[in-house]
């Protein structure tokens, strides 16, 4: 019998009628002869009673609450969801057992709020599957070796699902969500974005890492490491979704790609803090070393670094603003901070070494009169830092510039 993991996101389990639809997917897999493990996210979105953001809003002094206590609170959202969904499954006569992430064997480090999985102990789940029981696992959480509850970073139920898929040698991990697959851009910004039928781990990792929250980048990393096929699909339609699996890349085996279709997707990340930092006048030439060591020691990870002899620009996530400012003050550096920034990126394995791609990015920005504040690139990405107000316009302009609304011709 094949093992399949079915993960259902927050909107899929938001209310009773949607949970009934979810139960039908489980019934369908069982009828097809599969052994099913269900992974759930907390129910709904901010404002819904037990959603992750709603729980977070309960503690007005979230910054002062120890991270370990925040994790205890947040883990409740997925536990509630698992118990409630299990009741729907029982009504369909499915034998089920609810487990916390820790009970399901997910062991993590002690980095509360963004813990990494160290190991998955699959025995408990294997025994349940052998007995014909469907485990319903609370996503987004694990436990340390000492038994303390941790969470895996926002969006981390995807990570739970793929980690369990790897440990149980699942034939597929189905990530059920509210869109019918991974699209060429966030459909909330580009309504006519196309669903990509297949992708390799590299491109989707880049898309996810640069903001596409449809799947968590760590889930993709684990999938790649253990060659777990992942399918992103809609809970509410029969569409095929997007298959992420080895050898599903958009390049042909020789690496060719029609230059007109070299870009696979556009993604964006809202709300970044940009800093312009200058060293104190008397400081020696190694000021950048001193600066970045100090930031690192205080747990600040920086992004989009543009270093010049007398100043440096970089970005940090908004939640790191306070600690960044404090560090800069402590070491006597001058700075300006801008809180209205966003970054927009193009991703495509085929852009490496392809002349004209940067020119087309610039053309799209020029035609839309969008000012570029910083940029960065890698072999398969180009990222622009922009004013937040231009983010949506830039995503739409790049989507059009790279013909992403058109079907990619087969090579
Ligand atoms: P879930 O609660 O099911 O995990 P998420 O909100 O985490 O759902 O992810 C689904 C959302 O991701 C979609 O509603 C969509 O707005 C957003 N999204 C961002 N980029 C993309 C993309 N490239 N393709 C599809 N969805 C995207
Ligand atoms: N509920 C968690 C979050 O909102 C985890 C998830 O949805 O994957 O981040
Ligand atoms: Mg998600």
UniProtKB/TrEMBL annotation:
Binding of substrate, residues: 52, 78
NCBIfam families referenced in this protein's UniProt entry, alphabetically: asp_kinases, PRK08210.1
GO biological process: diaminopimelate biosynthetic process; homoserine biosynthetic process; lysine biosynthetic process via diaminopimelate; threonine biosynthetic process
Cellular component per GO, a single term: cytosol
Species per Swiss-Prot/TrEMBL record: Sulfobacillus thermosulfidooxidans
Protein residues bound to ATP: 7-10, 177-178, 188
Function noted in UniProt: Catalyzes the phosphorylation of the beta-carboxyl group of aspartic acid with ATP to yield 4-phospho-L-aspartate, which is involved in the branched biosynthetic pathway leading to the biosynthesis of amino acids threonine, isoleucine and methionine.
GO molecular function list: aspartate kinase activity; ATP binding
EC numbers, comma separated: 2.7.2.4
Domain CASTOR ACT as annotated: residue spans: 338-400
InterPro entries: AceGlu_kinase-like_sf, ACT-like_dom_sf, Asp/Glu/Uridylate_kinase, Asp_kin_monofn, Asp_kinase, Aspartate_kinase_CS, CASTOR_ACT_dom
Pathway: Amino-acid biosynthesis; L-methionine biosynthesis via de novo pathway; L-homoserine from L-aspartate: step 1/3; Amino-acid biosynthesis; L-lysine biosynthesis via DAP pathway; (S)-tetrahydrodipicolinate from L-aspartate: step 1/4; Amino-acid biosynthesis; L-threonine biosynthesis; L-threonine from L-aspartate: step 1/5
The reaction(s) this protein catalyses: L-aspartate + ATP = 4-phospho-L-aspartate + ADP
Name by which UniProt lists this protein: Aspartokinase
Domain Aspartate/glutamate/uridylate kinase span(s) in chain numbering: 3-234
Keyword ATP-binding carried by entry: yes
């Amino acid at each position: 019998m094949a093992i399949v993991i079915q993960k259902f996101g927050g909107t899929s389990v938001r209310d009773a009628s949607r949970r009934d639809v979810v139960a039908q997917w489980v019934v369908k897999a069982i009828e097809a002869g599969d052994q099913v493990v269900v992974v759930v996210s907390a129910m709904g979105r901010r404002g819904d009673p037990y959603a992750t953001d709603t729980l977070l809003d309960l503690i007005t002094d979230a910054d002062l609450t120890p991270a370990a206590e925040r994790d205890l609170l947040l883990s409740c959202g997925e536990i509630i969801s698992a118990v409630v969904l299990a009741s729907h499954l029982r009504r369909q006569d499915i034998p089920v057992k609810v487990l916390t992430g820790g009970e399901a064997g997910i062991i993590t480090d002690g980095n509360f709020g963004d813990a990494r999985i160290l190991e998955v102990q699959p025995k408990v789940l294997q025994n349940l599957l052998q007995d014909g029981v469907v485990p319903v696992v609370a996503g987004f959480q694990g436990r340390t070796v000492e038994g303390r509850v941790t969470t895996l970073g926002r969006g981390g139920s995807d990570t739970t699902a793929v980690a369990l898929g790897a440990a149980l040698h699942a034939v597929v991990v189905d990530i059920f969500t509210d869109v019918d697959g991974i699209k060429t851009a966030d459909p909330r910004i580009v309504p006519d974005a196309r669903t990509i039928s297949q992708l390799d781990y590299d491109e989707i990792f880049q898309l996810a890492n640069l903001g596409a929250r449809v799947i968590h980048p760590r889930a993709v990393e684990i999938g790649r490491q253990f060659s777990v096929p992942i399918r992103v699909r809609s809970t509410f339609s029969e569409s095929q979704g997007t298959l992420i699996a080895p050898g599903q890349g958009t390049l042909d085996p020789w690496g060719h790609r029609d230059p007109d279709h070299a870009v696979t997707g556009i993604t964006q990340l809202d709300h970044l803090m940009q800093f312009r930092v200058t060293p104190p006048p008397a400081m020696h030439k190694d000021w950048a070393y001193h600066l970045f060591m100090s930031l690192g020691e205080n747990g600040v990870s920086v992004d989009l670094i543009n270093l010049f002899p007398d100043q440096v620009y970089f970005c940090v996530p908004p939640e790191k603003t306070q600690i960044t400012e404090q560090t800069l003050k402590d070491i006597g550096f001058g700075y300006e901070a801008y809180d209205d920034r966003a970054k927009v990126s193009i991703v495509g394995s085929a852009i490496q070494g392809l002349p004209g791609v940067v020119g087309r990015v610039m053309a799209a920005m020029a035609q839309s009169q969008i000012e570029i504040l910083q940029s960065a690139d890698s072999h398969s990405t180009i990222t622009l830092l922009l004013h937040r107000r231009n983010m949506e316009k830039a995503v739409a302009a790049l989507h059009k510039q790279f013909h992403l609304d058109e079907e990619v011709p087969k090579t």
